[in-house]
């Protein structure tokens, strides 16, 4: 199962390559933010991330609500997090 999971921008890395370092439920990842090039992204911003791409910018309230709903999914969400932690994308 693939989910869009909220992640918080930690650092903008390369504007030309459209890369940012984000925290996704405690796992650091580098994601492509090219789909949000019209947004003013900054550390602390929240994004919905799917397959290495930031799909949309969301506010903190929406990000936390989404995380809460994902956690209610139980095993599917836990498996997604385990897969994320086991992957080597950093």
CATH top level is Mainly Beta
Largest sheet: 5 strands, antiparallel
Instruction: Give the tally of structural domains.
Output: 1
Q: Major sheet: order of its strands?
A: 3-2-1-4-5
- The unreliable regions are none
The shape is globular
Estimated share of beta-strand residues: 35-45%
Number of helical regions: 2
| CATH architecture group name | Roll
Write down the overall mean pLDDT.
84
Helicity, in percent? 25-40%
- Helix/strand-derived category reads alpha+beta
Number of strands: 5
User: How far from one another are the termini?
Assistant: 21 Å
Helix-strand topology string: EEEEEHH
Radius of gyration: 12 Å
CATH topology: SH3 type barrels
